[in-house]
């Protein structure tokens, strides 16, 4: 016999913390909710691990970054869960789930049953071994997904002050770790196979800004090649990395950031999977009515794109969790999840935000030497994505709003000239209040009707906004 709960959250990461807060707001009763997590600590803001946690001075440490401080909400300490009668089953891996019988089996041998299950198992870091390279077990080879990884990285970092670090992978984790290591006065070389960093998001022009900035901080880039093997010393520590291009780099520390894989294995053969994750509908409900999925593991319909996507970003984890709980607790009141994809990163003194989708043609704007610049992505005649570095709160809100409206854009050169002012103007002048019906065009893009009213409004806005351009580019920069 095991314990029984009305609601069980499987996984104790970002989404779990935001879901717990929402459950209490929606009136969950003490004793009804349980969170089971393999990690030994209550849910925390994972993005802190590659930023504040790695700082040499006053680094962030728990309990300061428990969820939900990242969204300026309450900080949920273990005491908070206790006070709300939420059972935290920590340091406990769930090894199997029977969705038909509504039961979980933990690695400690306990069976826990539920009425409603919320899957928030996130993802795991891909290992080098999955690419045919051995050596992940060496004590100075680090990954960064959870608190234990972050503690390991800090220990190795502290033991190799002024030493050499090789960072494998030029995506989020690689870029953020490289910056943090450089701040810790470690010599960093970043190695990746693509032609520029953040290849899945950045254009070559955006990437070159960040690469030059990193280089000014002493970070070296080795592009177009991959790690093939390590050289070990007699104690099994890595001393150097060998690259496919034949070169060798000395290494006191290696950080590997080569991607993640959603933790879906418990549900294979039981729930429908798509895009590498667990497929859910607009209420975050899986193919089994009693099971919901949120965060990195969920593949959900993104209305704005008219297709199912799986996102690996914190904002989507927070908001999908909140939406799922509303759908569970107030099914009649809650609608379909209508989410504008949002990613951000902060490295050194830089800070960027991206909204929407980076498909179609990129139009760059702003002065790339001033520290405030960006790009829009135009697909099938509409704005579908916006990127901004060094913006103010108002400017970030403007690009978010403009992207969500998907205004038509006819003249790309003019758009580039208007730059940020385009988003600022569009976001302040919504189209006339006509009923908006969401429909799918033949191209598969979701368009908002009536399109003709939009074209007319945007045309006027485009003309009116040119005058404001000089003013906006002369404004003082404010970070938030
Ligand atoms: P997670 O937060 O990964 O939580 C999953 C939880 O499930 C974990 O606690 C795990 O132990 C548990 N679990 C899994 N399987 C089991 C099991 N079988 N039994 C029990 N427990 C289990 N995103 C951004 O947008 N901006 C950033 O700047 C940013 N920085 C990041 C920095 C780092 C270092 C990392 C790792 C990620 C970063 N992200 C960032 C991504 C963001 O943190 C994730 O999108 C977010 O954590 C996803 O939340 P989640 O709850 O779905 O998964």
UniProtKB/TrEMBL annotation:
Cellular component aspect of the GO annotation: cytoplasm
Keyword Coiled coil: no
This protein's record includes keyword Disulfide bond: no
Cofactor or coenzyme needed: FAD
Keyword annotations of the record: FAD, Flavoprotein, NAD, Oxidoreductase, Redox-active center
Pfam families: MDHAR3-like_C, Pyr_redox_2
Record InterPro entries: FAD-oxidoreductase/Apoptosis (IPR050446), FAD/NAD-bd_sf (IPR036188), FAD/NAD-binding_dom (IPR023753), FAD/NAD-linked_Rdtase_dimer_sf (IPR016156), MDHAR3-like_C (IPR048618)
Known EC number: 1.6.5.4
One GO MF term: monodehydroascorbate reductase (NADH) activity
UniProt record similarity statement: Belongs to the FAD-dependent oxidoreductase family.
Name of the protein in its database record: monodehydroascorbate reductase (NADH)
Organism this protein belongs to: Gossypium arboreum (Tree cotton)
């Amino acid at each position: 016999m095991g314990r029984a709960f009305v609601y069980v959250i499987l996984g104790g990461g970002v989404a779990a913390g935001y879901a717990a807060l929402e459950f209490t707001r929606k009136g969950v009763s003490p004793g009804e909710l349980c969170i089971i997590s393999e990690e030994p600590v209550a849910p925390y803001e994972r993005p802190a691990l590659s930023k504040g946690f790695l700082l040499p001075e006053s680094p962030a440490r728990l309990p300061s970054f428990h969820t939900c401080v990242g969204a300026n909400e309450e900080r949920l300490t273990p005491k908070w869960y206790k006070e709300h009668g939420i059972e935290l089953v920590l340091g406990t891996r769930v090894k199997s789930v029977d969705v038909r019988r509504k039961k979980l089996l933990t690695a400690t041998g306990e069976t826990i049953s539920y009425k409603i299950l919320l899957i928030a198992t996130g993802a795991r870091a891909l290992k080098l071994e999955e690419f045919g390279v051995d050596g992940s077990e060496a004590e100075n080879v680090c990954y960064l997904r959870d608190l234990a990884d972050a503690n390991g990285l800090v220990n190795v970092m502290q033991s190799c002050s002024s030493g050499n670090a090789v960072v494998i992978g030029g995506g989020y984790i690689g870029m953020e770790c490289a910056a943090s290591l450089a701040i810790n006065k470690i010599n960093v070389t970043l190695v990746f196979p693509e032609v520029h960093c953040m290849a899945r998001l950045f254009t070559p022009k955006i990437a070159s800004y960040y690469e030059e900035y990193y280089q000014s901080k002493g970070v070296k880039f080795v592009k177009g090649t991959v790690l093939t093997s390590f050289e070990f010393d007699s104690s099994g520590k890595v001393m150097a990395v060998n690259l496919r291009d034949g070169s060798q780099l000395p290494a006191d520390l290696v950080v590997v950031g080569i991607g993640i894989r959603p933790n879906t294995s418990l549900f294979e053969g039981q729930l429908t999977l798509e895009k590498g994750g667990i497929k859910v509908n607009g209420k975050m409900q899986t193919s089994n009515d009693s099971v919901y999925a949120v965060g990195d593991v969920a593949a959900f319909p993104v209305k704005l794109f008219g297709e199912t996507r799986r996102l690996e970003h914190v904002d989507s984890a927070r908001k999908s969790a909140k939406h799922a709980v509303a759908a569970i607790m107030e099914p009649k009141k809650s609608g379909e999840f209508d989410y504008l994809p949002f990613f951000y990163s902060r490295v050194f003194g830089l800070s960027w935000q991206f909204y929407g989708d980076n498909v179609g043609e990129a139009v760059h704007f702003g002065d790339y030497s001033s520290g405030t610049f960006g790009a829009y992505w135009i697909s099938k005649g509409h704005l579908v994505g916006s990127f901004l570095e060094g913006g103010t709160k108002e400017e970030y809100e403007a690009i978010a709003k403009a992207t969500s409206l998907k205004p038509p854009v006819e003249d790309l050169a003019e758009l580039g000239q208007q730059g940020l002012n385009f988003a600022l103007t569009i976001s302040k002048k919504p189209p006339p209040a006509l009923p908006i019906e969401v429909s799918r065009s033949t191209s598969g893009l979701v368009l908002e009707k009536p399109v003709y009213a939009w074209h007319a409004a945007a045309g006027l806005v485009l003309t009116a906004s040119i005058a404001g351009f000089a003013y906006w580019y002369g404004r003082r920069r404010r970070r938030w």
